[in-house]
Amino acid sequence: MKAENRERRVTAGNKSFLKENVAIISGLVILCLFLTFMSDSFLTQSNLMSLLRQMTNNVFLTLGVMMCIIIGGIDISVGSVFALGGTVAAGMIAHYHVPIPAAIMLGLLAGAACGAFNGFFVSMVRVPAFIATMAMLNIARGIAYLMTNAEPIRCTEKAFTNLGTGRLGIIPLPVIYAVAWVILIWLFLNKTRMGRYVYAVGGNMEAARFSGINIKVVQFTVHTLSGFLAAWAGIVMAARMYSGQPAVAVGWEMDAVAASALGGVSLMGGSGSVVSAMIGVLIIGVLKNGLNLMNVNSFWQLIVQGLVVLAAVSMDMVKQRKQR
Question: Roughly what angle, to the nearest 10 degrees, separates helices 274-293 and 173-191?
Fold first, then answer.
């Protein structure tokens, strides 16, 4: 009897997921079919592996930004924290000969510290998340430039570069990291008490406060996690590029916001899922890859990406009005 009830719940959950995401899944399928028709290179193994590896950066950033949006905030500092994490790790190895595991930990701590800074001002000082993270966007980028004198830090230590360039069979290691983090964040949001609090805070902050949830702890935790994930993404990218680059990832926070919005993460807070957000990441990644394969001018690519963000946010607003 219990097994039958569990099976019914799973089936109902699958139907609900498909119903809520039918539009975005259909859009992804249509986009893939269009690019397959337009370019012979799209479905090749080399292009698909390259596509997956390129998307991993946005996977890490979107996971953090998504959680910040769910609690009713946002994090637009992730691109700068990405650059800072990579430059700290590469700099510690290249300039100070710090052991690679310790250097990676320092890079992650730098990112977590940036997230904690955001979380402190959002939760304790009650600065709007947009303002707090906009300040960190400039602070983290400035620190990265100061540390490197605005120049890339070359780091060719094999054990470090393998982090970003290694493979397991034909699958790039960054893709495996991305899958692992998606699973971990899904478990965090769906199987832990703190994860339930994240949705409760975003859904109705006052109701969450009256029910005994420590709002400040939730906000601080989510922003710290976002900074940690951004730094991890930056470290993997630095390993892949053989250098920590302070000017990298400018504007990448917009891709994370766009992926979240496309994936149905409500910009009003309180709703959204990891799986849906990853479909949004896929759409952004496939769109960029397809535009490159079709040799579309980079300036036009910016226009297309901007229109996609606008469309995603508009759809969310329409959905919210219908629900009200």
Answer: 150
